[in-house]
UniProtKB/TrEMBL annotation:
Full protein name: Class I SAM-dependent methyltransferase
CDD domains assigned: AdoMet_MTases
Taxonomic source organism: Actinokineospora soli
Keyword list, A-Z: Methyltransferase, Transferase
Methyltransferase type domain ranges (all copies): 2-75
EC number: 2.1.1.222, 2.1.1.64
Keyword Transferase set for record: yes
UniProt entry tagged with the keyword Hydrolase: no
GO biological process: methylation
């Protein structure tokens, strides 16, 4: 098993937490150069990674290059609908759409004062950038890279409690109560290299 991350500090922390796994620092958009071509049976990408990828077609070509024939990508990602409801919950129970679904505005500046860990504000808060990718864009990029998508699922569950009235469905998983709209919060897909 091999992990890849752009951040040297993240790689160091991962190595300390899981020394039995090989971790490599590098750019995901140069993954095949960094890790080697056709080395892997499975490539996994998950939960918030794609928003840091400016070029999803280039990313998909790197995934395809990493996979051996018959290997597959398994992607678990936050659904683009979730991002339309805003990055940080406002406490408004109406689930008002506050942002775009369609990903055609380029880089989106994001206030880096808070992280997904829900910890205290960062002392050296900075702005960072995200790129939103619709499911259609992701699937089209994977098909263009020569992969065959054979599974696509959407789910109303999140691995954290984003809104106060969310109901725990087991472990870390939460969803909106039954009397609220059923919206896709995450999606997963599998794409196989021919």
């Amino acid at each position: 098993m091999t992990g890849l991350d752009l951040s040297g500090a993240s790689v160091d922390a991962a190595r300390a937490a899981s020394p039995e796994i090989s971790y490599v620092q590098g750019d995901v958009l140069r993954a095949a150069e960094v890790l080697g071509r056709e080395r892997f049976d499975v490539v996994y990408t998950g939960k918030g990674a794609l928003v840091f990828v400016p070029d999803v077609a280039l990313w998909a070509s790197q995934v395809a290059a990493l996979l051996r024939p018959g290997g597959f990508l398994y992607l678990v990602e936050f659904h683009p609908v979730l991002y339309t409801l805003g990055l940080i919950p406002t406490g408004d129970p109406s689930l008002t759409m506050v942002d775009d679904y369609l990903p055609d505005r380029g880089a989106i500046p994001v206030d880096g004062t808070y992280t997904y860990t829900d910890g205290p504000p960062l002392a050296s808060a900075t702005e960072y950038y995200e790129w939103r990718h619709g499911i259609g864009e992701v699937v089209t990029a994977l098909l263009g890279a020569g992969l065959r998508v054979d599974l696509l699922r959407e789910t109303p569950d999140l691995p954290y409690k984003r809104w106060e009235d969310m109901v725990c469905t087991g472990g870390v998983w939460h969803r909106l109560p039954e009397d609220r709209p059923r919206l896709p919060m995450m999606y997963s897909l599998r794409a196989v290299k021919g």
